[in-house]
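Sample 3 of the quickstart, ligand nicotinamide-adenine-dinucleotide:
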Amino acid sequence: MGTLNLPRKVSVLGSTGSIGMSTLDLFDQAGLELEMVGLTAGRNAARLAEQALRWRPQVAVIEDEAALPELRERLAGSGITTAAGAGAVRDVAAADAQWVMSAIVGFAGLAPTLAAAKAGAVIALANKESLVCAGPSLLRIAKLAGGVVIPVDSEHSAIFQVLDPSIAAQVTRLILTSSGGPFRDATRAQMAAATREQALAHPNFSMGAKISIDSATMMNKGLEVIEAAYLFAMPPERIEVLVHPQQIIHSLVEYADGSTLAQLGLPDMRPPIAFAFAWPDRLPWPAPKLDLVTAGPLTFQHPDPEKFPALTIAKQALAAGGRAPAAMNAANERAVAAFLDRRIRFLDIPNVVAETLERMDRVVAPMAFDDDAVESARNTDAEARRVADEVVIGLAA
Ligand code: NAD
Ligand code: MG
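Result:
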């Protein structure tokens, strides 16, 4: 293994979440000796402290300031520095790690991801919302700083693994696969009555609540279409979505000569994390291996646009460009939160997003780029949240 050129100094942003924990588990399983620069969490001080005692980061940061006393107490005498607040999370992202896992959920991940990009780190990007809200700027800033963004989202990792950038012009289609979520075989009437618990029950694995609801509405795939368009500079009409319930083929790239290349694996986030960690090498670790004989038949179907309007909404937002994707993302975050709070019904989620975009369309303002991207995205995000909350109140009334 001495020949592998692996990063040593790493940070994990969102370490207490589903992706964050998979990342630390992978490090453990691979027996890596790392210099942990920082671990950050939203509000789970107990889990963050436990991780910090295991990984000995220079600093452990909790975004929620109210949780700082607990974190301090749990890490008292450990020699690990603690801090709190969004600014402290950003500072960790900007510190001198060679590799940064960006696994905060939602728009909150944008500023730290941009900070890591400016610092020139290799960014393992799980936080798809940051690409959706400021993709072109994020990619340009990373490139200028000599860094690189490696997608962790399994579909984009798959495409990254099989798309040869030197012949990108000869790619005719990207095909993103989707599990179809918990309502793949449900009727629209069943979806209309769906409870929080039913919507949270992803068929193949357990993820954070927000992405679980996004999988149920298929807004997750909508966000991923936008993510793919930016990452691989592909026009929307060349990105297709196929439902593939077994989640063995993670995505495909079709070339002009009629060849289609796929990447396969078990539904497990650790292989795409391992890929992003070791790129361009391959990390040896005791990975559960795919057995095609027991995997069973692989099936595919088109998503039903009547059941999953979020896909169309996302494609329209991508085509509209400017601030539409960021507004869409914000409206979706608010709608998902409202559904999780039982304030709106399941099928209201895409309606809130569509109605928010419609109301905001009356004020046309292009997105600013590069250094102003966060500011510009933040304004759009804040405005869209306000509008979406109004729409939610109107629905709940
Ligand atoms: P999660 O909810 O399990 O974890 C989110 C992490 O972010 C936690 O550590 C949480 O404490 C932290 N956090 C939340 N709000 C924060 C804030 N305001 N400031 C700072 N930190 C905050 O989510 P997850 O499922 O791990 O997903 C993380 C990201 O990865 C999301 O963008 C998601 O779309 C993406 N993703 C997840 C999966 C998956 O399998 N879970 C797959 C692909 C992509
Ligand atoms: Mg995905």
